[in-house]
Specification:
The complex is a heterodimer of chains A (499) and B (328). Chain A is mostly helical and 499 residues long. Chain A is built from 23 helices and no strands. In chain A, helix 5 crosses helix 6, helix 20 runs antiparallel to helix 22 and helix 21 runs antiparallel to helix 22. With 328 residues, chain B is α/β, with parallel strands linked by helices. The model of chain B has no long low-confidence stretch (mean pLDDT 84). Classes of the chains: A mainly alpha (499), B alpha/beta (328).
Chain lengths: 499, 328
């Protein structure tokens, strides 16, 4: 590897610039990289689909698991391309078996979920290390946040893959002809795919491979850029490349002569300046004095920087407090107090959780529990509202009919009211009608009609009609009504008092 | 277009007979929607506007067309669309080249009976233009206030299930409607009769309203409204109506209660309903019978009950079961 042959300018970059540099390199050879990735990957996916036709999900999982092996060939091409030796496709494919052998099992098992895979792959593949040496080398490269950005690259890549894949899935769904009769709902996505739809699942697996064909070379290139940048930082590749170019330019004898002259001239003493004469004491400086001077010098800027910060921190039991004025508190008491406080805090947390669960029980029942359909349940009675009370009647006399007859001459309205309230009482007592305060006269009549007792219905209708005429229309009942009502009442209820 | 300024004298008995005939006539066209017919006649007598809600195909528009057919006055219809402008409703000034003057061109709102079909399809400014006319009963064009003819009744329809591309009416504007009717699926027997009748109809997919007789003139409607407003209302019944409305404000199942306008409308509807049944005074049944239609669009359901899957109607029914009826 001759750094001076690099087709790119190598100099220290920020991690983001380094990734961008890698991707720019990949864009130059996008076609080659995508083909090199796709030629082994597509047949593999096809084979998996054929073998696991009934389980498209499993086929996709295996394909996804083998992704790290597919990243090796693009890296191989990128590493050659950097130094102007771009391999042809056939040459690259011939190198593939050798590339796959290096630590393939570790890549698929213990390091499969390594978030900095793109950064670690060049160390394995390009430096040809293995075992402990590889581990040490990785440690060196990762030191001082050397891998900065590699994890983010993986995370962003993961989301990008997912977004592109979902986008393609949506696009595919839009392209499906109506005749295909494919109708999705969320429920179906959770269930097994019917056999006649398996082709669609495998097609979506293919779309994922299509996304990877575009993204994987870029991902590898981003990691490769980070790796190169780390090497530039650590080994001053930029300087080395500059020196190599200089040596090549100054390769002639004239150049060497000029260089030698320059070096000789550089060794000549400088001009004599008017400096104070060196003290004798410094010439006879002893070891102790020198140490003291050095210590004093190190205690001054720029070798030391003093700053004061004030903050709370837990006391170190090993340190003895220098505040002697505080009364000594027994450690046992403090321990018990802390435990009591802890118990109280946990109680508060538990009570809060229970309070929240109680407060939002309706939501919990709706979203976390099994509910009966609301249509079949009665609406919950709001707090503060009691159940409908039975209609309260004024105190009724023992013989309602006789009392009403007596009242009719003086106050027919009062007599009607007495008969009406008596009727309500009898309906509740004798016929168990669940009358409440909220029931209007019309509703009471509807309940009476449901009893299917013609005489009772006729009495109730007549009484309620005349009662309404008096109560809301201020129309007094005709005199003829009195006898009709009272005789009907006595025929139905006798004296009228509850049995 | 004439304003019926002097309503003919009409006795309560005549009014009752007229309304019964009208109801029977409308039932010929609108099958299985007796409650909706009663409610729409209630609104007509109470001089209030109606919002009719129901899924497509239940006869919302048919109901209004049937009323229009039985009504001898003017009838207008506006199909609300997203591009409908306020001036398309109220009218606008047009420059007349011949006279070199601006002339007012009145919009379709200048009518007795206006069908605002699918009102929630138009944007807020157009809805507001109509709602302003409903409230003020006049339109201001070029600085000139033009009253709409009397009687003036707006019957708006909307589809509750379609939310896409609609502009739901805000609560403050819903309050302008006296009643909100919910049309539900007809009973099996009614549906059988309906299908049988439509199958005989010359129109392929709808009932005929052409066979209905116009029984009501604009002046008759004014007379009916006058009669209803003169019906005696006992203090206890008035108190019951007000208690019903006030209870919505502290009912914990509702986050928003109905305002005083609801109390007024409830009493007016009670009077109209009393006249409709041929009564001489208002009973608690008249009030309770139209309470649901008067209140359902003026209250907001509490979120927890909404999540429970309860409807406003169910909560209001429960409220009605809690408020004590008058027991003089």
């Amino acid at each position: 590897m001759r750094l001076s042959d690099s087709v790119a300018v190598l100099h220290p970059r920020s991690p983001w610039e380094a990734m961008d540099f890698g991707m720019a390199l990949a864009r130059r050879h996008a076609g080659l990289l995508m083909l090199a990735w796709a030629i082994p990957a597509w047949p593999l996916l096809a084979l998996l689909s054929l073998l696991l036709w009934e389980s498209p999900g499993l086929a996709l999982l295996i394909f996804w698991w083998l992704k790290p092996l597919g990243e090796r060939l693009p890296l191989f091409i990128l590493s050659r391309t950097l130094f102007g030796e771009t391999p042809r496709l056939g040459e690259s494919l011939r190198a593939l078996p050798g590339l796959l052998r290096a630590e393939w099992l570790a890549s698929l098992t213990q390091r499969r979920f390594n978030p900095t895979r793109s950064f670690d792959l060049p160390v394995l593949l390009l430096e040809g290390l293995a075992g402990k040496e590889l581990w040490q080398r990785r440690a060196v490269l990762a030191a001082c946040r050397g891998k900065r950005g590699a994890g983010w690259l993986t995370l962003v890549g993961l989301h990008l893959e997912l977004a592109l894949w979902l986008g393609l899935l949506a696009f595919l769904y839009l392209l499906l002809p109506a005749q295909a009769g494919v109708e999705f709902d969320w429920q179906q996505l959770l269930e097994d795919t019917p056999p006649d739809r398996l082709w669609l699942e495998h097609l979506t697996n293919g779309l994922y491979a299509l996304v990877l064909m575009i993204w994987e070379p870029l991902y590898v290139a981003g990691g490769f850029g980070l790796y190169l940048n780390r090497r530039v930082h650590l080994e001053a590749w930029d300087l080395e490349a500059a020196f190599q170019r200089l040596r090549r330019r100054l390769g002639s004898a004239t150049g060497i002569l000029l260089l030698a002259t320059g070096l000789v001239l550089a060794q000549l003493p400088g001009p004599a300046m008017a400096e104070p004469p060196a003290s004798q004491a410094s010439q006879t400086l002893g070891r102790q004095a020198a140490r003291a001077d050095i210590r004093a010098m190190l205690g001054q800027p720029p070798f030391s920087r003093r700053e004061e910060t004030t903050r709370w921190r837990f006391g170190d039991p090993a340190q003895v407090s220098d505040i002697e004025s505080l009364p000594a508190v027994p450690a046992d008491f403090v321990q018990r107090l802390a435990q009591a406080l802890e118990v109280l805090l946990w109680l508060a947390v538990g009570s809060g959780a229970m309070l929240l669960a109680w407060r939002y029980r309706a939501w919990l029942a709706a979203f976390a529990g099994r509910r009966t359909p609301a249509a079949r349940r009665a609406p919950p009675r709001p707090p503060g509202h009691s159940a409908p009370r039975p209609a309260a009647s004024p105190t009724l006399p023992a013989d309602i009919a006789t009392q009403a007859e007596r009242l009719w001459a003086e106050d027919p309205g009062q007599a009607l009211a007495l008969l009406y309230h008596g009727l309500l009482e009898r309906l509740r007592e004798d016929y168990q009608l669940p009358l409440s305060e909220a029931d209007t006269e019309g509703e009471i009549l509807r309940r009476v009609r449901r009893l299917e007792r013609p005489e009772l219905q006729h009495l109730a209708e007549t009484l309620i009609r005349h009662w309404q005429n008096f109560a809301y229309g201020r129309h007094l009942p005709p005199a003829a009504v009195k006898d009709e009502l009272l005789s009907a009442w006595r025929a139905r209820f006798g004296s009228g008092s509850p049995a | 277009m004439n304003d019926a300024s002097s309503p003919p004298p009409l006795s309560r008995q005549q009014a009752g007979q007229l309304l019964q005939a009208l109801r029977t006539e409308m039932c010929k066209a609108v099958i299985g929607q007796q409650a909706a017919i009663d409610d729409i006649l209630t609104a007509l007598i109470a001089n209030g506007h109606v919002l009719v809600e129901g899924v497509p195909g239940l006869g919302k528009t048919l109901l209004v067309r049937a009323l229009a057919r039985c009504f001898g006055g003017d009838f207008g219809r506006i199909q609300f669309t997203p591009d409908l402008m306020p001036s398309d409703v109220t009218g606008h000034a047009v420059y007349d080249l011949a006279s070199e003057q601006f002339k007012l061109r009145k919009g379709p709102v200048f009518t007795h009976l206006l069908l605002a079909d699918e009102i929630n399809r138009a944007p807020a400014k157009t809805q507001a233009a109509l709602l302003e006319v409903m409230q003020e009963r006049q339109v201001t064009l070029e600085g000139c206030a033009l009253p709409v003819p009397q009687p003036f009744l707006v019957l708006a329809t909307q589809n509750p299930i379609e939310q896409e591309g609609t502009y739901p009416l805000p609560e403050a504007e819903l309050d302008r409607f006296m009643l909100k009717l919910r049309m539900d699926y007809p009973e099996a027997a009614d549906e059988m009769a309906l299908v049988r009748q439509v199958a005989r109809s010359t129109r392929a997919d709808m009932l005929e309203v052409a066979v209905l007789r116009p029984l009501l003139q604009a002046a008759d409607v004014l007379a009916l409204q006058q009669l209803a407003s003169d019906l005696p209302l006992d203090e206890q019944v008035l108190d019951y109506a007000v208690r019903l409305v006030r209870r919505t404000r502290d009912w914990s199942g509702l986050t928003l209660g109905a305002g005083p306008r609801a109390s007024i409308d409830l009493v007016r509807c009670g009077r109209a309903r009393a006249l409709l049944r041929g009564g001489d005074f208002v009973t608690p049944d008249d009030i309770k019978g139209c309470a649901l239609a008067v209140l359902r669009h003026r209250v907001c359901l509490a979120p927890e009950l909404d999540i429970e899957g309860l409807s406003v109607d169910r909560v209001l029914e429960q409220l009605l079961e809690q408020v004590a009826a008058p027991r003089p």
